[in-house]
Amino acid sequence: MNNTAVKIHERQRPSSRPRTRKQRKLKIRFTLGEKLLFLSFCVFAMYAAVHIVSNQVKIYQVNKEIQQLQETVQEQKKQNNDLYVEVQQLSTYERILQKAKELGLSLNENNVKVVQE
Question: What is the pLDDT of residues 94-112, one digit of tens each?
Fold first, then answer.
């Protein structure tokens, strides 16, 4: 074989190590407008988050006040009911007659006037 033929044949044989392509990393560059847009979005997102949290705190405080007022109203209703029962007990005919006798008053049936409610 000719010497030239051998050299061409050696070039065509695959080499023992595979060739690897170097991949270039694409560097993404942002324009000034894109940076400002991203920054404004971040600022808006932070503002919205703070605003939502502050509204939730206000709602929590108002609900707490409502519950306290409802509890106060319930206690006042109970106290009013207890006082009404006491008034009913103290205004019985027998009790009034007993207190009148203790104070030295006597029952004159000719002088009694019936008042209807």
Answer: 998 899 899 988 888 777 7
Q: What is the DSSP letter of 109?
A: G
Backbone φ and ψ for 107, nearest 5 degrees, come out as: -95, 115
The end-to-end CA distance of the chain, in Å, is 141
pTM score, two decimals? 0.53
- Domain containing 59 equals 32-101
Asked, for residue 16, whether it belongs to a domain, the answer is no
- Give the whole-angstrom CA distance, residue 65 versus residue 59: 10
Q: How far apart are CA 46 and CA 103, in angstroms?
A: 79
Mention every residue, 6+ apart, whose C-beta is less than 8 A from residue 94.
none
Q: 97 with 107: CB under 8 angstroms?
A: yes
- Compute the distance between CA of residue 117 and CA of residue 96 in angstroms, rounded to an integer: 17
Separation of alpha carbons 39 and 47, rounded Å: 12
